């Protein structure tokens, strides 16, 4: 090789093409990632964040749509919440309604899932039977149950055949609350049942069989093996059921309209009354913000306590 002559490139460099610059690939991947998440982010921004901010802003105003009054009052609406006796009874009805919904729905859904997980003839039919109310229109479901729960309706007619004089279910405080809880549970229990059933079918049969050979009974196998393994699904179902119970409106509106008295006047229905019956949109927005805080607090509480009872989080 003479002086000033450039050395020849290695054979491997001549055979392999020049690799693309890493920076350009990273920028393209980042751009694709942003494009994929953009619809979700835009939807959350337009349908959640902006409306929530508007409700918070309206809650600081005295807004009457009929009179056209819209003036800034600061925290007066929130101060009125603390002194509103109707709000207290609405909160009590909300607590009783939500606790009843969550306890009955989760317990019944888990029981049905355990029963339908058995390999017996006819289980498919019952799965369809219990899930069918989920796809039925909520308003139609409520109207039918409204007829059945009347004083001379089908429920009392059935009770009279065994010598029981049933109450006027939707016109007495305790029975009205019980009736709407049961109707709501029957409407949505099929969805939770399907979720639990899918989780139970994912439990390894080898673990259950090993426990059976060790002498563990069916109840012990369920609580020691199956239930811990499906605890993530249990957490999901609990969060969905709690949030759904706090947002129940159509059922209350069709069956009881919040009555008798305020026995079924749950918080979301009280918000509707303030906004669309009394046209006090400012105070209604404050009630909506209170409901948002309650839902957020309960969801965060369930999420923060997951390490204590969710198997895969330990």
Largest sheet: 2 strands, antiparallel
Strand order of the largest sheet: 1-2
Would you report the number of β strands?
2
Tally of individual domains: 1
The dominant shape is: flat
Whole-number radius of gyration? 29 Å
Identify low-pLDDT runs.
none
Give the second-level CATH assignment, the architecture. Orthogonal Bundle
**CATH topology label:** MetI-like fold
| Total of DSSP H or I helical runs spanning 4+ residues | 15
Helix content: 55-70%
User: What proportion of the residues form beta strands (DSSP E)?
Assistant: under 5%
Protein name: Carbohydrate ABC transporter permease
Subcellular location: Cell membrane
Domain ABC transmembrane type-1: 91-302
InterPro entries: ABC_transporter_permease, MetI-like, MetI-like_sf
Structure explained in plain terms:
Its main location: membrane. This is Carbohydrate ABC transporter permease. Pfam families: BPD_transp_1. Helices cover 69% and strands 3% of the residues. Strands 1-2 form a two-stranded antiparallel sheet. With 314 residues, the chain is mainly alpha-helical. It has 15 helices and two strands. It has one domain (84-313): Orthogonal Bundle (MetI-like fold), CATH 1.10.3720.10.
